[in-house]
Amino acid sequence: MTNRTTMIEQITTAFRENGLTAAIGAALTFLFAVAGAVTRKAFTSEALVRRLEQELREERKRAEKARIAERDRLEAQRAEDMKAEQEHRKRVERDIHQMRELLFAAFQHPPPQD
Pick from 5, 6, 22: which is nearest to 14 by CA? Predict the structure, then answer.
């Protein structure tokens, strides 16, 4: 393990060995180091928040595109089903009309009697 001294020990040593100016310099160095670490942490957190917000926006866009695609697919399926149903109704109506004409023709012209 490394032998690390605390900030108070460093300031005390600087004061004993070099006087008040060195102690103040050591204290200021410590304060600037702390300020730098806090600032770096704040910017890192801010960058992380920005990145997460960007990812959230992208995810929302992707979800919206998926929702629109699903809605369009359902609308296309519904339109196809309606078209098939309409064609079926036309065939049924045509068959009914043909059957009516056939019955009408059968009763209009009785079969010849031998």
Answer: 22
* Residues 54, 23: Cα–Cα separation, whole Å: 46
Mean pLDDT of the chain: 85
Q: How many CA atoms lie within 13 A of 52 on its CB side?
A: 6
39-57 pLDDT per residue, tens: 877 777 778 888 899 999 9
φ, ψ for residue 111, nearest 5 deg: -65, 145
- What is the per-residue DSSP string for 10-71? HHHHHHHHH-HHHHHHHHHHHHHHHHHHHHHHHHHHHHHHHHHHHHHHHHHHHHHHHHHHHH
Q: Model confidence over 92-110: pLDDT tens digits? A: 999 999 999 998 888 887 6
Q: Residue 10 in contact with residue 27, Cβ under 8 Å? A: no
Domain boundaries, the chain: 7-108
- Note the pLDDT of residue 1: 45
Between CA 28 and CA 34 the distance in angstroms is 10
